[in-house]
Structures are given as structure tokens and as C-alpha cells.
Design goal:
Radius of gyration: 24 Å
Largest sheet: 2 strands, antiparallel
Strand order of the largest sheet: 1-2
CATH topology of one domain: MetI-like fold
Oligomer: single chain
Helix content: 55-70%
Number of helices: 11
Structural class: mainly alpha
CATH superfamily of one domain: MetI-like
Order of helices and strands: HEEEEHHHHHHHHHH
Strand content: 5-15%
């Protein structure tokens, strides 16, 4: 094997491994924008007729909805969940990072254990909890339940952000008369602002693509994007071009936020202080 052949081998291998996945994505986009009969993955012509849901009502079962209602419900659901994850994790992460209390290590271990528990196991318990709190079949209530699944790992993430801040910064603020809450709000949050954005986007994304909790705990009339697509798949005649176009719209916000998440994570400050 020559030197050039050896250098090219990893790239050839990567292309061969990625080819099936690339083909599926190409077929997906061609299906979304294709019109007329399709031979293999190539349509007869291209157009925007599959995106008619953007300006026409969507019929599912015996009822109708619009894509904008489903999209607004999904944004509300994911935003509430992301906000709850961010607030709780930022407070808890600061506490476990900077405050010594009895059972701290046990608490952190329990967070990892809770994160390892599949969310589906908790469905029945969450159903009755939301029922007694009068939050069942309500989007904010289901968002709170969904956020609880991401909080355990989120606490570890935010703890890492606060661990990187030198203790001298906190001591100086407290000497100047700041309380713990003021130190957290006025000093620490501005320093880890990219981390705050990353945690919010992380919680938002997990809620955005949730199906099990939405399908189980919300009524059929409260359509989100995931359950709307599922209801269209349950019809006798499936228009795959229509579904591909709707799925493409469903993908756009997470893809955009994923780019923002990557940038936010790269901007998380790394301090050189020494902890105690």
C-alpha cells in the first residue's frame, strides 16, 4: 500500500459508512419537494404542493387543525420545559458547587441515578401527580413533567460551569456585602451566560422532540407537531410527500438551535482559578 493510498483509506471508509445515511437524507428532501409519481428516490417534477399545510387546514380523523396551532403548542411546550430546566439547574448547580451541606455527595449520586431511570417508567406516577395538581391535559403541566427528566443531568452540567469560576470572585463579592442570591444573580450568571443559553437550548430540544409524554398525557385535541405527524401516519392513505414536508418544517427549529447550542458551549468561559 502506497503512502497516498494509506492516507486516502480512512476517507474512503468514512464515505462508505456515511453513504446509506446520506442517501436517506437526499431521498427525504426529494420526497418533500417532489411532485407526481416517483421512480426510486427521484420525483417526476419539483414544487411546493406538499407544503400546502402552511396555508390550508390539516384534516386528521374527523377534525381539523392548522400547522400554526400545532407549532405554537410545540413552542410553548418546549419553551416552558427549557425555562424550568434552566432556572432549577442554575440554582441547584450553584448550590452543589459553592455550598457545603450534609449529604451533598449522596445528592449528586442520586442525580445520576435518576437520570439513568427511563422516563417511561415514571408515566403512571406522573399521570396521578398531574391529576391531583390539576395540571393533567394541560401543556404547562406536561412541560413541567418533561423538564423533570432533564434536571438531574442538568444539575451536573451547571455545577461544572460554576466550578470553573475562581473562589476569589465569590469572596470579593461577599466582602462587598452581597448575599448568596446576589452573588448568584449579579456575579455568577453574567459570567456563565453562554452556559445558561446552552442549558436552555438543551432542555428545549429534548422537549421539542418528545412524543411519549405528549401522546400519553395530553388530550387528542391538543396537537403538538409530534402527535400531529403520528395522527397523519395512522390514516388509511398516507401521503408521504406531505409528511416529508411537514417533518422538514418540524426539523428546522431543532437544527437551528443545535447550531446555537454548539456555539454557546464553545463560548462557556474557562477560568484559571484554584478551588478549595
Amino acid at each position: 500500500m502506497t503512502k497516498k493510498t494509506g492516507a486516502a483509506f480512512p476517507y474512503v471508509l468514512l464515505v462508505l459508512v456515511a453513504a446509506p445515511f446520506i442517501t436517506m437524507y437526499v431521498g427525504f428532501f426529494l420526497r418533500a419537494f417532489g411532485e407526481g409519481p416517483q421512480l426510486g428516490i427521484f420525483p417526476e417534477r419539483f414544487g411546493l404542493s406538499n407544503f400546502s399545510f402552511l396555508w390550508e387546514p390539516i384534516t386528521w380523523g374527523l377534525a381539523e387543525t392548522t400547522i400554526w396551532v400545532a407549532l405554537a403548542n410545540t413552542i410553548l411546550f418546549a419553551s416552558v420545559s427549557g425555562a424550568v430546566v434552566t432556572v432549577v439547574c442554575m440554582l441547584a448547580g450553584y448550590a452543589v458547587s459553592r455550598i457545603e451541606f450534609k449529604g451533598k455527595n449522596t445528592f449528586l449520586v442520586l442525580q445520576l441515578f435518576l437520570h439513568a431511570v427511563p422516563g417511561q417508567i415514571l408515566l403512571i406516577a406522573i399521570f396521578f401527580l398531574l391529576y391531583y395538581l390539576h395540571l393533567l391535559h394541560k401543556i404547562p403541566g406536561i412541560a413541567l413533567a418533561r423538564a423533570s427528566l432533564e434536571i438531574p443531568l442538568g444539575v451536573w452540567m451547571t455545577k461544572g460551569f460554576f466550578d470553573a469560576i475562581p473562589w476569589d470572585v465569590e469572596r470579593a463579592a461577599m466582602i462587598d456585602g452581597c448575599t448568596r442570591l446576589q452573588v448568584w444573580y449579579k456575579i455568577f450568571l453574567p459570567l456563565v451566560k453562554p452556559g445558561v443559553a446552552a442549558v436552555f437550548i438543551w432542555g428545549f430540544l429534548f422537549a421539542w422532540h418528545d412524543f411519549i409524554y405528549v401522546y400519553t398525557l395530553l388530550p387528542g385535541t391538543a396537537k403538538l407537531m409530534s402527535t400531529l405527524i403520528q395522527s397523519l401516519l395512522a390514516t388509511e392513505v398516507i401521503d408521504y410527500g406531505y409528511l416529508a414536508a411537514m417533518s422538514l418544517l418540524y426539523m428546522l427549529p431543532p437544527l437551528t438551535l443545535f447550531v446555537l447550542l454548539q456555539r454557546a458551549l464553545l463560548k462557556v468561559p474557562i477560568f484559571g482559578g484554584k478551588g478549595i
